[in-house]
């Protein structure tokens, strides 16, 4: 895993969703999307850069994936993250990465664009590097409290309380709290050319 110079402490990968029914639901939705696209488990594993055993465990509900794994898999399936983390008819789901806790507040389609709106909580500590989304995906972040360093991994930007930043997220990008205060923010992700299943 890539570590930023912001903090050299070891980062622990955390499951993206809580165990039990929600993890199994995520796996079931991944399998349904993969099969609907006629992609084999081996092919998706290879394309997403995720171990076959990890992907099989995710689909069977026996393994709880990291947020980074879910991003890699959904990018290869060509769907927004919300397509696998939120059960049909619901929108509220909380997912966790190595440094970010994100609660999906709303996912919606408009014309040929899907939007996902998240509430973020970023505690102090090592930053999170998220993999690239597909071409043309943008992220728009507003900080409510604290100071956040976010954006493309090679050129992150600082944003404090009341500030807004946005970037094209088709490259690896980072999120990390600056200082000792937890960050609270909103994140709108815009996926052109995609729609929710």
TrEMBL record:
Keyword set includes Hydrolase: no
InterPro entries recorded: Cro/C1-type_HTH, Lambda_DNA-bd_dom_sf, RmlC-like_jellyroll, RmlC_Cupin_sf, TransReg_Diox_bact_type
Coiled-coil region: none
Keyword annotations from UniProtKB, A to Z: DNA-binding
Gene3D superfamilies associated with the record: Jelly Rolls, lambda repressor-like DNA-binding domains
GO molecular function (one): DNA-binding transcription factor activity
SUPFAM superfamilies in the cross-refs: lambda repressor-like DNA-binding domains (SSF47413), RmlC-like cupins (SSF51182)
Ranges where the HTH cro/C1-type domain occurs: 30-84
Annotated spans, Disordered: 1-29
Compositionally skewed regions (Basic and acidic residues) per UniProt: 1-10
Assigned GO CC terms: cytosol
Protein name per its UniProtKB record: XRE family transcriptional regulator
Lineage: Bacteria, Bacillati, Actinomycetota, Actinomycetes, Micromonosporales
